[in-house]
Each structure stands twice: as structure tokens, then as C-alpha cells.
Design goal:
Pfam families: HTH_1 (PF00126), LysR_substrate (PF03466). The structure is a single chain. The protein is α/β, with parallel strands linked by helices. The chain is built from 10 helices and 12 strands. The protein has 3 domains: 84 residues, Winged helix-like DNA-binding domain superfamily/Winged helix DNA-binding domain (Arc Repressor Mutant, subunit A), CATH 1.10.10.10; 101 residues, D-Maltodextrin-Binding Protein, domain 2 (3-Layer(aba) Sandwich); 100 residues, D-Maltodextrin-Binding Protein, domain 2. Strand 8, helix 8 and strand 9 form a beta-alpha-beta unit. The two termini are 51 Å apart.
Length: 297
């Protein structure tokens, strides 16, 4: 039994006679008759009653006709789904996003635009810091990521810049630093400072430390946070001050303020990253959306 035999059977039922079905397919009538016989042998039951006036369905044929109709419909849907997946119109896209970007307007708008253009693609958004995102991409646990400072020496990854952020001093509202904001990093020497462990995102950590060293600032670390959201909460609780990307203030708790510093000019390029050998078409559709937003299309 094959799908051609099933289609021949459905054509005969629809046309009412083997001759009419042979003409509509088109197929020689003896060949069609033979295919119907082979189908009935495969099923193990007679499906059609032949007469001079045409063909009618047996009881087995009626049940078979119902089931074959559903099967062929599902087969057509399966072909359609496969085509849509191959075109990036359907499927699932695993996207990594650093925790504080989940409510940053530029990122939420990118995700909204993608959802609007490709509603049948399910976005599985995973909140991860930049370092773990890179590892997840390398091990095919993510399809794409939105992060800071992807490794420049990894030929297996591709990048598209989304926008550039800047670093700011974050302090508790009402604190001395909030009331009299310093102009330069060195003025923070001796202040209680909230930081994060290097293992969480080594490249970002090292670039910040180098920027601090160039400005003559050595952090007096009294608390560590696992991510930007935690660090903001620790600042709000009066545990100390910290340095964070300005866009994280979009999700800052009440009682936290930020100020720029003159010598803290390290740019933070937020980047869409994916594997060079990415075979999932939906990844390339996301790239298309990101590029069209940059061009204002």
C-alpha cells in the first residue's frame, strides 16, 4: 500500500466509476483497476462493490474511506508544516536573553516584531548571563542569544549589533552618593561596592576591571550578586553601590538612582549571536527582523 493507491481509491469513490476516476487522474483504466485490487489485498477486505452502474462502498470500504480522508488530510498538513519550518515560518526558536534585557524596550520591541511577522514560531526565551549563553550556543542548547561581548576569536559564532549601552553608577536614593554624585570613578575608592563573580561572565568582568584600573579605582567588594537584577536589589537594600549598564534601570526597584561618570566611557555593545552553522531557518528570520529594524524598514 502507498499514498498513490489511497489517492486512487479516493478518486474512484468521488467519481463513482472507475472509468471516470481513470480519466480524472489521468491513468489507464486497467492500471487503475489493478491498483485497486492490490489495495484491497493489502487491506485484507473488499472495499468496493463493482457493477455496471459504477462502484459503491462496502461496510469495510466506508470505514476505510473515513480513515483515509483523515490520513490524507494529515499528510497534506504535515507537508505544509515541513515547508513552513524550512522557510522559518513555523517551529521553536530557543533564544537566550540576559535577565535585565527582558523588559528593555528595544529588546521587547524586537521580540514583538518577530512574533507579529512569524506568529507560528514559538519563542522559548531563556534568561542567562552572557557567559553561559555562549556556552549554551556552542553546545546547541540555544539557537541564538542576546548578550554583551561575545568572544571575538570564535569563528563558529556570528554577530549582529543591536545597540550600544553605557555604564552608570547605581546608588540608593537618599544616600550620600545619590545626593552628591561623584564625577569620576576614583571617588568611589573605599565605598562599599556590590560586584559579581568572574565565572558568571568572564569577558564582561575583565573589561570592567581594566576600565576601573585605568581610572584608578579598586572596588571594595562587600557583597556579590549573581546577576544585574540581584545587584539592583542589594543596592536598594542599602548594601552598597555598583556599576551597571544604564538600560538595567528600566527594571530597577524603587529607591535606586543612577548617575554617569566622566571617565567610565566603556561602550557596551548588545549583540545578537548565533552559530555560523545554524541550520534552523527561524534563526535567520530573527536576524532579518533585527536587520530590518536597524534599517528602519
Amino acid at each position: 500500500m502507498d499514498f498513490k493507491q489511497l489517492r486512487y481509491f479516493m478518486a474512484v469513490v468521488e467519481e463513482g466509476t472507475i472509468s471516470a476516476a481513470a480519466a480524472s487522474l489521468p491513468l489507464a483504466q486497467p492500471a487503475l483497476t489493478r491498483q485497486l485490487q492490490l489495495l484491497e489485498e493489502s487491506v485484507g477486505a473488499p472495499l468496493l462493490r463493482r457493477s455496471r452502474r459504477g462502484v459503491t462502498l462496502t461496510a469495510a470500504g466506508e470505514a476505510f474511506h473515513r480513515d483515509v480522508g483523515r490520513l490524507l488530510s494529515q499528510f497534506e498538513q504535515a507537508k505544509c508544516n515541513a515547508r513552513r519550518v524550512s522557510e522559518g515560518q513555523m517551529g521553536q526558536l530557543r533564544l537566550g536573553v540576559t535577565v535585565m534585557h527582558l523588559w528593555v524596550p528595544r529588546i521587547t520591541q524586537l521580540l514583538n516584531d518577530f512574533r507579529h511577522q512569524y506568529p507560528a514560531v514559538t519563542l522559548k526565551v531563556v534568561s542567562l548571563l552572557s557567559g553561559p549563553q555562549i556556552e549554551a550556543l556552542r553546545h546547541d542548547q540555544l539557537d541564538a542569544g542576546i548578550l554583551f561581548f561575545p568572544p571575538e576569536d570564535d569563528p563558529g559564532l556570528c554577530y549582529h549589533p543591536l545597540y550600544e549601552d553605557r555604564l552608570v553608577l547605581v546608588a540608593r536614593a537618599g544616600s550620600r552618593l545619590a545626593q552628591h554624585p561623584p564625577r569620576r570613578l576614583a571617588a568611589l575608592n573605599g565605598e562599599d561596592f556590590i560586584w559579581f563573580d568572574r565565572s558568571a561572565t568572564p569577558t564582561y568582568h575583565d573589561r570592567l576591571i581594566h576600565a576601573f584600573q585605568r581610572a584608578g579605582f579598586t572596588p571594595h567588594v562587600v557583597q556579590e550578586g549573581t546577576d544585574n537584577a540581584t545587584m539592583l536589589c542589594l543596592v536598594a537594600a542599602g548594601m552598597g553601590c555598583t556599576i551597571l549598564p544604564e538600560m538595567t534601570m528600566a527594571g530597577a526597584p524603587a529607591g535606586v538612582v543612577s548617575h554617569p561618570l566622566e571617565d567610565l566611557d566603556m561602550a557596551l555593545p548588545l549583540t545578537l549571536v548565533w552559530r555560523r552553522d545554524a541550520s534552523l531557518p527561524a534563526v535567520h528570520r530573527l536576524i532579518d527582523v533585527a536587520e530590518s529594524r536597524e534599517l528602519g524598514l
